[in-house]
Amino acid sequence: MHATRILAIRHGETAWNAAHRLQGHTDIPLHARGRAQAQAVASALTGDEGGAGGEAIAAVYASDLARAFDTGRAIAEAAHAPITAVPGLRERSFGAWEGRSFADLRVQFPDEAERWRRRDPDWAPPGAGENLLQFRERISQVVQGLAARHLGEQIAIVTHGGVLDVLYRLATRLGLQAPRTWEMNNAAINRLLWTPEGGFTLVGWNDARHLEEALDLEIGDDAR
Q1: 159 strand-pairing partners
Q2: What is the DSSP letter of 217?
Q3: Distance of alpha carbon 5 from alpha carbon 119, whole angstroms
Q4: Is residue 53 classed exposed, middle or buried when 0-12, 13-18 and 19+ CB atoms within 10 A define those classes?
């Protein structure tokens, strides 16, 4: 049975990550720590230690938003692999709520914020936001399509926290409303398998050993 090995990577950190602001489709660049994390994960995936142990990466697919694409480009350059921007790998759209913090939204829109907190699958943020059912369908179709191109190979998918949440749930058969008990650190390495017969299977999650030095980096003014 042929399988596609998937390295699923969340982009490096941004200033909005650090400030706990919703990013969604807003194109926020990596800050200094995020750029260091991108280099660290690239080295881990292509070096002799950690990550994929230097195994070949056939292709890198990244969200077209800068924070993911720039992280993916670091991996692609280190792996000598082609990189393709895939808009379908974008984060969930949070519509008019992008740029806001959940703490602020909970005060200003308590009823809607509660539906979000409860992971109501039919609820969507105002202003063309996506509900969880729409989001899961998008990610499932896009990632399965990419995996189907590479049976017997390994690919890297560089994307966003919400996308990784969906992939974890698909691989573990958890529903959309199950409480999240797993971490999704910026630039951590997550491993999945995909087969046409069985779909996604979880292999390893949130390996962040390579990030110790990057996390110790002193952030400059561009992070604030």
Answers
A1: 10
A2: S
A3: 29
A4: exposed
Say how far apart CA 20 and CA 29 lie, in whole Å: 15
Longest dimension (CA), the chain: 52
**CA-based end-to-end distance of the chain:** 49
Euclidean distance between CA atoms 224 and 209, whole angstroms? 26
Per-domain residue ranges of the chain: 4-223
Closest CA to 191 of 147, 142, 134: 147
Please give the helix or strand (H or E) that residue 44 lies within, else none: helix 32-46
CATH 3.40.50.1240 fits domain 4-223: yes
Distance (Å, whole) CA 188 – CA 214: 12
Catalytic residue status for 11: yes
Torsion of Cα atoms, 137 then 197 then 176 then 88, to 10°: -30
**Taking the mean position of all CA atoms in its chain, how far away is CA 69?**
11
49 catalytic? Reply is no
Mean pLDDT in consecutive groups of 10 residues from the start of the chain, 224 residues: 93 96 97 95 77 75 98 96 98 97 93 94 95 98 98 98 98 97 97 97 96 61 39
Q: Which of 11, 31, 160, 210 is catalytic?
A: 11
Catalytic residue among 13, 25, 91, 160: 91
d(CA 68, CA 187): 10
